[in-house]
Specification:
binds protoporphyrin IX containing FE; 3 helical TM bundles of succinate and fumarate reductases; two-stranded antiparallel sheet; single chain; 133 residues; mainly alpha; elongated
Length: 133
């Protein structure tokens, strides 16, 4: 059966603009949830250096480092996509290039993630597998 298409792409499969809208919401909420946790862990300093050091020691755990890598990815995606949204806000005519701009901003995000994943991933492998990369 022939695929039904809308102006924005194949029906029900969304478009780059639609997927980036969802990703922007998900990353925005993820970042703010981390911010709440971070306010709490930083506030522990009020109980003195020992209490604070015990709490922040959790950031030495390799699995928490994986979550940290996810956090960096979320912030980076949200920031780059946020600038794209601002371009649409200031120059409404640019929405004609929504698909191209969404692909370009996602591409920029992926390219930026390559060195970041290497730098942070190296630490994760060293901590979890005892390697010395
Ligand atoms: C790094 C620089 C950032 C930029 C350029 C940026 C940009 C934006 C823009 C333009 C929007 C509006 C989206 C729309 O109109 O649909 C937005 C939404 C939002 N941002 Fe950010 N933001 C940034 C950082 C942050 C941070 C640090 C947080 C969390 C602490 C955050 C949380 C959110 C949330 C929760 C939304 C609402 C999402 C939605 O309703 O779809 N943003 N951001």
């Amino acid at each position: 059966m022939a695929k039904r298409k809308t102006d924005l792409g194949t029906l029900y499969k969304g478009s780059p603009g639609q997927w980036s809208w969802i990703a922007h919401r998900v990353t925005g909420v993820a970042i703010i949830l981390f911010l709440f946790a971070h306010v709490v862990d930083t506030a522990v300093v009020g109980w003195g250096p020992d209490a604070y050091n015990r709490v922040v020691a959790v950031y030495h755990n390799w699995f928490v480092r994986v979550l940290e890598l996810g956090l960096v990815a979320a912030v980076l995606y949200h920031a780059i996509n946020g600038v794209k949204i601002m371009v649409f806000d200031f120059w409404p005519g640019s929405t004609r290039y929504m698909k191209q701009l969404s692909i370009a901003s996602t591409g920029l995000f992926l390219v930026a993630m390559i060195p970041i994943t290497w730098i942070m991933g190296r630490d994760i492998l060293n901590l979890s597998l005892g390697w010395n990369l």
